[in-house]
Structures are given as structure tokens and as C-alpha cells.
Amino acid sequence: MAVYSLLIIDDDIELCELLKEFLTSEGFKITTINHGADGLSVSISQDFHLIILDVMLPGMNGFDILRSLRLQSAVPVLMLTAKGEDIDRIVGLEMGADDYLPKPFNPRELLARIRALLRRSQNTKKEAVFTPQDHVKININDIELNMSARVVTYKGKILDLTALEFNLLEVLLKNAGHVVTRDMMSEKVLGRKPDPFDRSIDVHMSNLRKKITKHNTNQDKDPIKTIRGVGFLYAYSSD
Questions:
Q1: Does residue 239 lie within any of the structural domains?
Q2: Cis peptide bond upstream of 102, omega within 30
Q3: What is the pLDDT of residues 129-152, one digit of tens each?
Q4: Helix (H, G, I), strand (E, B) or coil at 78
Q5: 146 and 86 assigned to the same domain
Q6: Each residue's pLDDT tens digit, 205-238
């Protein structure tokens, strides 16, 4: 059985010790860092399966760490935010965080989020290696998604997508012309049922849209449609 290595960057020493004890008992290898700049250095110099990152840190805040980390690594990042600070959650997601959890939280909820992120990360790697060659590409109008190479091109331009944005687009394209509900999208991409107030999918979808419409001469022509109160649809023409 694989042992997953996790890095926790949080200045709350007592919380780090509690999480280390709890997660170690669940079979994880845990490293904890209590300073922002040190956390960035360790996250880049060592290999981890997942990073748990607090927003408020001494020396370097979580957003700056995430921004620098995303220039070099696609490792899954779960951000810890203050309760009620919706703006921190949205900013974190826009900058490339994979998920977030507001403090205070139940350790079991954190464990569930960790397992969902790791499961999604490992499934992505397996698909990239074992997908049959005759099913690795999806072509719809101006967009091409290559599941084997994990590359998306739109109107001949390569889109710089995060792993989560790639997975969102894959679900949309496989269901092109049909509505994908938020519940279905959350379960397939985030690995969990959505919370009524969870805006993760909406923020990631907004980021994906911006990257696609950036290459449109007509900015109003957005192939991703929001079906109010239901979900999303990738529109295509048969011409």
C-alpha cells in the first residue's frame, strides 16, 4: 500500500502537532513547517503528494507561496482559510488551489478532502498512462483535448490549464450538448458532494472560461454556458 507524503504549512504549532498525530495514524507521512518562506523552500525542494497550506503565515503568506509554487509544480494544494473569509477562498481557487477548508474544521472532514484530492490526482496519472490510443483525443469545433498528453488546444493555441481545469473541460466535452449538473461536476472533479455555499466549481469554471475566450475575436462567443440553477453545458455546432 502506497504511503502518501503530505506537507502542512501552518504557523499554529499546536494544530500542526494534532494534525500530524491524527494523519500519521491514518497512514500518511507528515512534514510540518511553521514559517511561510521555509514552507515554500521545502515544498519546492522535496516531493510531496499533497500540500496543506494556511493563508495567514509569518514571513510569506499562503497566496504568495501558492503563486510561486504554481510556477514550478502542479502538486495538489488544499488551502486553510479563516471562517467567513469568502474572498480568501475565491482568491486561492483563482490562483490554482485545488480545494479549501475553513477553520476551525473537523479532522475527519480534512481527511475526506485529502483522500478525494489524492484519489483524483492518482486517477489522472493512471488515465494519462493507460488510456487507449484510439480514445485519447476529443475534438469539438475549435477545441482539442488530448487526454494522453494532458494538453488542450483552442483555435490552434495551447491553453495553460491547471489539472482541475483540464478535468472540468474533459467532463464538459464528453457531455457536449448536454447539461452537466453542479452535483455531477463536483463529484467527478472534486470527488465530493457540493456544499450549498461552496463556490469552488464556479470559480474554477470562471478561470477556464477566461482562458478559452481569451482567444476569441468575439468575446461574447463563449462555448461554456451556465444553466442557471442547474449546471453547465458545452455548446457545439454541427457545421
A1: no
A2: no
A3: 444 444 578 888 889 998 877 889
A4: strand
A5: no
A6: 988 998 888 877 655 578 899 888 888 999 876 5
